[in-house]
Amino acid sequence: MEYIGWAWLIIIVACIIIEASTMGLTTIWFAIGALVAWFVHLMGLDLHVQIIIFLLVSIICLVLTRPIAVKKLKVGKIKTNLDSLIGESVKVESTINNIENEGYVKARGQIWSARSVDGEIIEEGELVVVESIIGVKLIVKRKN
Description:
By secondary structure, this protein is of the alpha+beta class. It has helices at 2-22, 27-42, 47-73, and strands at residues 89-97, 102-107, 110-116, 127-134, 137-142. It has a 5-stranded mixed β-barrel with strand order 1-2-3-5-4.
């Protein structure tokens, strides 16, 4: 049954490699469970006890600590170039008029279709702040 100890070590290494390549904060908890199961194996307990310990520790770690770790490490939410436009000041290139479905702004050297957040007409040359993005339109408000 010595191969069981090696199996736990292989599971630990495999989970760590998978976690390092994905950064999803999922397989790391199974590596912890396998580590505890390996210690249980070293104490000479039966395989079925090792498996139960592995599953319990892995699931408890996953359920109790993953949400905290995800929040602290900010895993999963990657700010895209598009998202990073929100809050940025941009210049109106063509008068924004929601009723006429007109208006363009220039952001980072590119021309974007734009609409006013509150429906007001914003004249060419004014500075506005990007509030949100809907489809390919920047939703803006006049900069105070």
